[in-house]
Write a structure and sequence with these properties.
This protein is of the alpha+beta class. Among the domains are: 16-89 and 120-197 and 304-368, 3-Layer(bba) Sandwich (FAD/NAD(P)-binding domain); 451-551, Glutaredoxin (3-Layer(aba) Sandwich). Helix content is 28%, strand content 29%. It contains 14 helices and 27 strands. Strands 1, 2, 8, 9, 10, 11, 17 and 18 form an eight-stranded mixed beta sheet that branches. It has an eight-stranded mixed beta sheet with strand order 6-5-13-14-15-12-16-19. The termini are far apart.
Length: 555
């Protein structure tokens, strides 16, 4: 039981349909009320889709679990209206330090430039994230959260799926036009549709120890540098207090610190969780005189693997149910939230009959590409942290030793390249550039935020894009220079509204034009998930209409 958090117990409620023996049909059923299931349920609801969210438990996740949340997921949660309490509660950080033994060899900054609303990263226990999202879902009129409802069978039936759900009052059936499975790495839903989930398993075992320390400066033992007032990520290779292995240290809120100890391949998972094994490890790191309390302990192995198809008929997979990565780089929950962001707007257009089901297939195209990118980065980090041969170990240590004095070696260090968005550069929804642009804002890339003035007040680009359309979102034409002669462009049931830079908003600091390589006349077509769909040096309504058709998979 946590010493710093009281776990809620959510009430089980029998539905009227179950009580009356009716088989009810729902537009959307989401399986799993973890961070990803809750995020996609809230996103779909805000776009107007009624959501039934099923979870076989009745509380939030036990233990801190995922603790690092990157800028892009925070921006997505900000669009959903839940980021502020998370950022306020979380511990902000952007500097990471890497040590070989007790010597610092490398330091990095996740956000070397200013002008972003969201921080580079926050550390926050997963149960706080889930609690915030549960509260938002429970308060939304289009979300019904059903606790103690376990999916036990699923059958595909043409344009819908039939689900059998087990509850404390027995089982019942319901129908769903679409199902989004967010039920984790051991997804039962994945097994029900016969999906393949393949990849690489890693034999190394790691110990997570969350410890509560009194406020103040943490002084790891054995001569390591003292951790100052600014929270940072510290990673040791072969430290004096844990020879031959690696250790990761993060600060969370409530004076809780996350420590990950590499244990090696032959460690006994059950024995290593016992206090008599855990406490000496922590004392060796922190010093025997520093008092602490154990908050949560777990031993884990991990794999890097992906489902073969993210869509099976009427069932769509997201989060760990779709892909599993190592914890190094904080790529699990962060990429799962981006799954939700990619899927919700597409599902809305399909349910409304505006777009064909081929648009749902683009979810696999874009997010499987992102998953493969994350798997590659995760595997490379794991290979660097846990060399599989004596030669690899010597090479790894040589890189670390050189990095202290040689800048060329520092980019080779991989203690977990931290989560960044994967741009969908080759997506079939993109309209390729016709003119030359500089900078990273290519079609398929998520929009970079920038400070603005809107209606005489300080504002942020991503917030203005959201408020332009209301909670449901929409397409935007971000136009620089003179205001276009028209306010919107419509095609195939979708509308792109003009946001004039210099008219509707002012680029007071010039960062927006700089980040988007904007000249007078430049225009960007932005998708409802705030990704660039197309860009031109001059606004042409015919080209916009063609790009809109392409972006909703109408060719």
């Amino acid at each position: 039981m946590s010493k710093s958090y009281t776990y809620p117990e959510f009430p089980y409620r029998q539905s009227a349909a179950q009580r009356e023996g009716r088989v009810e049909r729902h537009p959307l059923v989401v399986i799993g009320a973890g961070p990803i299931g809750l995020s996609v349920a809230l996103d779909c609801a805000q776009r107007g889709i009624p959501v039934l969210l099923l979870d076989d438990n009745n509380t939030v996740s036990v233990g801190s679990r995922a603790v690092c949340y990157a800028k892009r997921p925070l921006e997505i949660w900000d669009r959903l209206g839940v980021a502020s309490p998370l950022v306020d509660k979380g511990v902000r950080w952007q500097v990471g330090k890497v040590f070989l033994e007790d010597k610092q060899v490398y330091q990095f900054d996740l956000l070397p430039e200013g002008g972003h609303k969201m921080p580079a990263m926050i550390n926050l226990q997963q149960y706080y994230v889930e609690q915030t999202l549960v509260d938002a879902c429970e308060a939304h009129p289009k979300v019904v959260v059903s606790w103690k409802h376990k999916l036990v069978a699923l059958q595909q039936q043409g344009d819908h799926a039939r689900l059998t759900v087990q509850t404390p009052d027995g089982s019942f059936d319901l129908l769903a036009d679409w199902v989004i499975a967010c039920d984790g790495a051991n997804s039962d839903t994945r097994k029900m549709v016969g999906a393949q989930f393949t990849g690489q398993f890693f034999e190394d075992r790691f110990l997570i120890a969350d410890v509560v320390l009194k406020p103040g400066v943490l002084a790891p033992a054995q001569g390591a540098q003292r951790l100052g007032s600014e929270p940072e990520r510290w990673f040791w290779f072969d430290p004096p207090f844990h020879r031959g292995q690696s250790v990761l240290l993060h600060k969370q809120c409530d004076d809780v610190w996350r420590i990950d100890f590499q244990l090696g391949r032959d460690a006994d998972q059950e024995a290593e969780k016992r206090p008599e094994r855990v406490i000496p490890r922590i004392q060796a790191m922190l010093g025997p005189e520093l008092p602490f309390e154990l908050e949560w302990v777990s031993v884990y192995q991990f794999a890097c693997r992906r489902i073969d198809k993210l869509r099976y008929g009427r069932v769509i997979f997201a989060g760990d149910a779709a892909h599993q990565v190592s914890p190094f780089g904080a790529r699990g929950a962060n990429t799962g939230v981006q799954d939700a962001d990619n899927l919700a707007w597409k599902l809305k257009l399909v349910l409304d009959g505006v777009a064909p089901e081929a648009l749902i297939d683009s979810y696999h195209e874009e997010r499987a590409f992102a998953a493969d990118d994350n798997l590659l980065n995760s595997t490379r980090a794991t290979d660097f942290i846990s060399p599989k041969s004596a030669v690899s170990l010597r090479l790894r240590n040589a890189v670390l030793e050189l990095a202290a004095d040689q800048p060329f070696a520092r980019p080779l260090i991989n203690s977990g390249r931290l989560s960044t968005p994967t741009p969908y550069l080759n997506s079939s929804l993109n309209t390729p550039d016709e003119e030359v642009f500089a900078g990273p804002m290519k079609p398929g890339t998520n929009c970079a935020d920038a400070p603005l003035r809107h209606q005489g007040q300080p504002a942020w680009l991503l917030n203005v894009l959201n408020t332009l359309h209301g909670p449901g979102g929409g397409f935007t034409l971000l136009a620089f220079g003179d205001r276009p002669a028209f306010e919107s462009v419509a095609e195939g049931g979708v509308v792109a509204r003009v946001l004039s830079v210099g008219g509707d908003v002012d680029d007071a600091e010039g960062l927006l034009a700089q980040r988007y390589d904007a000249q007078p006349g430049t225009v960007y077509l932005i998708r409802p998930d705030q990704h660039v769909a197309a860009r031109w040096r001059a606004l042409d309504a015919g080209k916009v209409r063609a790009a809109l058709r392409r972006c909703i998979a109408v060719h």
